[in-house]
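Need the bound structure for flavin-adenine dinucleotide, inputs here:
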Amino acid sequence: MGVAERMKQKTTLSFEVFPPKTEAGMEKLRGVLEELYRWRPDWISCTYGAGGTDKGYNLELCRAMAGSGRTTPVSHYTCIHHTRQDARRDIDGYLELGVRDFLALRGDFLPGETATGGDFDHATGLIAFLRETYGDRIGIACSGVPEGHILSPDWKQDVAVLKRKQDLGADFIITQLTFDMEQFKRWLDAIRSAGIHLPVAVGVMPVLDRDKCIRHCVSMNGSAIPRPLARHISKYYNDPEGFLEHGKDYTVEQMREYISLGVNDLHIYALNRSDAVSDILLRSGLFGRPD
Ligand code: FAD
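Answer from helper R.:
Posting the output first, comments after.
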């Protein structure tokens, strides 16, 4: 059964990890993965060139996850500098490793560039190509942006884009981080009203560090810092330990609210930190105890 089908049957747990740049980093990440597996994640996604970097150890990481037999790897794949030929070569390579699920994205532009520099300008083109080329041999996830993409005039335009992604063959949605729960509810209602029935994996960014938290919101995404988060930031502005400690509870509350809204998967941006993630999951009590 594919990832999307499993998400329709019960609320699943998944993580996002990012590939390290060195063999030493990769070794460390193997330990992190072992810890994350203990939570029986239904799938783990691995980023690809996020922030305009190179893909680093993406393949090695996907290979390790596929070989573990303990989760389903989902590789991100982007339009950046990719021709159709590149996409076919790369996806064939993943299939040989046993990776058959992909998050098809436009991708972050490389520094100094303002276009993808490949055959696809938007994720829609990549999704259409992948579905036409591979049929149901692969699973395809797409991004959903509850607050609207930074280039979009408003978030409602992206609801129409999301409908197009569904029509082109995407299987499920992974959302961009948001802390604005009111906007998330508006968006969820809007996509369902627009006939978008795909399962939603909601991206959960743990609140662990003051500067990173602020940067995650405003540096690339234009995400709002709602009042409860602003108060958390102010209250623990000069107290990193308090910020971390109470930030975990903040994240647990957000996860509980998402569950109450009926999302299909909690997708935790694990930031390659199994310690904090495990603590959050333990406190939440939502997914039992680790193996
Ligand atoms: P798109 O869906 O292509 O949308 C981008 C803009 O184009 C929007 O304004 C949209 O309205 C518009 N648009 C879309 N389709 C059309 C169309 N057919 N015609 C006209 N306009 C259109 N980046 C990485 O580089 N690597 C990663 O690993 C990575 N992981 C991510 C994981 C998640 C869960 C998310 C949400 C984002 C991730 N990103 C990653 C960032 C992402 O690449 C950027 O947010 C990027 O700017 C947009 O990607 P997208 O697929 O949402 O773009």
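Comments: Residues 47-50, 76, 78, 105-108, 122-124, 143, 149, 151-152, 157-158, 161, 174, 176, 203 surround flavin-adenine dinucleotide (CB under 6 Å). The two ends are 23 Å apart (CA to CA).
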